Every structure is written in structure tokens, then in C-alpha cells.
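Input record (one chain):
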Amino acid sequence: MKQILFLIGIAFITPVSHAAFFQCTNYAGETVFKDSECSDDETLEQKIDPESLSNRNSVFTPVADNSNPLGKNLLKNSAFENKLLDWIIPLGVTWSSNGGSNNSGALMIQASKPPDDKYIHETVVAQCIILNNGSKFELAAEFKSLETPSKVHANRANVIWYESTDCTTGGQWGAYIEPKKYVSSWQKLSRKNLTPALGAKAAKITIVQNGRYSNNGKGHWDNINFMATEVFDQSENNTGDKIDNSLTLRPGVSYVLNGEFNKDITSWRPGWKTEWSGIQGDSFPGSAKVTAQSKSGSIGKGAFSQCVNFGANSIFELGASFKRDESSTQKGGGRLRLTWRAKQNCHGASKTTSKSADPQDISGWQRLKINGLRVPEDAQSATIEIIQSVVGKGEFIVYWDDIYFKAVE
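The corresponding structure, as predicted from the sequence alone:
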């Protein structure tokens, strides 16, 4: 059964939907999956017909384990003792019987150098696991590469949270671990206290190599561990506070404090250089002035934000006014977005909405609006975020005004 699962993974991630695949063993004893026949110095193990597997993709869905996940590695075949079984792999990824940290099995990725274009080219190995009742997690792994990459993020292991148990819907970035750049021996990597996104039921662990930055190096991965370090107390309501009806405002009334910036920028948490302007304003004078500055390349980060608690409302609208300062010495951009939080005062698990509003590169005041922001189950607060960027050396100066967050239902 494990062999079938592995082959199905190949059939559904390759763009060649009708060609046969070949499982070969090379001179070093490594297993390689190819879309061409084995070479003269390789041994053919089996020829695979993907069409014969296409109607069995449903068995790839992870099976829920109701046992306590605390301290238990949720990944299957994490030490690669059973070749590459239980992992979804692309063509070209290899297995070594003795390339691991203790001369044991290992996963090896050697991404080919991509064309010189604007796209990201990555070789990705993945496995989906169900979180059960875990509330905090740790990701750990061992890595080795003899070649020094051109950029430190050439090799990474990532966590992506999903709302569906088969890792197909509701995906949100979680965290990553990456090796140090100039170390050629085995490195132990880990990241702790990983909190799942709001509403997440599963996580996809991906092992990634960027072909442009890996310097043709072969990344060795071994002993990948993803385990729960804390679990929910099932005797309590841990998904968030109970709805506080005293916080509920009638539809049309903004939850934002000092969204008009009439006198100052109080109630907002600044990130980038943010100050009050008593001259500029959309409806009336008064706005938040943000200066995004760079000494070299492109930079983007949070400009300012505010946390709002809300009650029983279910659908919201978020809006703001934006204007660029014509004295800016560089172009740039901005973004208005929202992140839901499980508990009041923006604590607990979070979920960033897929909807956002970006201003256009035009003069004068423009009004941004995001409709249909539906509150996720168990969310009790939200962070309103203003993000600012500058595309190169210089300053991009903008004004924000009349920020509101109001219920429509």
C-alpha cells in the first residue's frame, strides 16, 4: 500500500499526464524517479503507468489519529528508512541508503538551474498531516550540503497550515527552518512554539530547494520531526473567548478608534516612520503620514496597525483613504488588510484574510474598500494593518486617513 501511495503522488504532481515513469537505481544505490528510461549505468526497478493510478488518488488523504499527539512525531517515514514512501515528490528527487546523518537513509534534492526569468523555481517535497488537538508545535530536521548556496534561503523546510484535513483549502503560511550558509557538515535545525492558524486542521510540511540559489548543491535531509508540544485542554473552550455582546456595535458604526486622525495618531501602533499631519486629509485636515525609506533596494513592512474587539457581528467592511506625496523621490506601494484573531485583544491563533486593497499609482486622494469580510468561527478580534513599501533607494511618502471597520450584518 505504501508503494501505491508514493506512485500516486508522482502521478498527480507531474505535468506529463500520460507518459510512463521509470524507477531506477543508480551506481550509488540511490532510487531515482524519471520520465525517461534508465541510463546505461542505472538499473530499472519498475515502469509505472500513471493512468492506472489516477482513479485511486483519494487514498492520499491523511487518516486522523485520535491519540494524544503530545511529543509524537506526526510525520511518516521521517528518517527515510523506507526510501521516499509517504512523501509527495517531484521527478529528480533521490533517495540514498547511506546518505543520512548516521549513514542511514536520506532524502536528497538537487534542483536544476532554472532560466533567468522573474519566476520562482523550486523543487518541493511534501507531506500532509492532521493536527488533532495540538495547540503548539515544533518543526525540526537535520541538513547537509557540501556546496555553499548563493543565498541562505536556498534550502528550507516549511510549515503551511490548512483548514481542510487533506491540505487543499484554506492554506496559510506558518513558519520555516533553514540551514546556515557556510556550514558543510550536518546541521540540526528547529523552530518551536508554532501556533496553528485560526481554524487550521492540518499542516503541510514541505522540503524545498530553490534552483536559482542552491549553486547546484545537493541538499541532504534526514530525521524531519513535526510534533505537538502543547495540546488543548478538552475540558475547556480553548478556541477563543465567548462572544461578548457588550462589544457589539450596530451596523454602520466603525470599531476603529481615531480613524480620522483629527488631532494625532493615538490608538495606532506605529511600525515604519509614522507621524501626524495636520495639513493633509481627505474629508478634513488630519492624517497619518508614513515615510518609507530605503538606502538600496526594495523594502516593505508594516506601517501602523490597530487591534479591535467586536461582538456578535458576522460580516464586515474595511476601508481607508490614501494619497501619495508628490515630493517622494521614489515609487512605492501600500496595502490595507485584516487579520482575524481567536481571542480578544488580538491574542491566540490568527488568520490573515485573502482579501486586501492596494492603492493605484495616481495623484490625489483615493478611497480603498474591502467588502464581504466574514468572521471565521471563534474569532473575537481583528488587527487592521497598513503595509507600506518603497521600490528602491529613496523615499516614498504617503498619507492615510478615514480608516474604518464596520459591520454590515
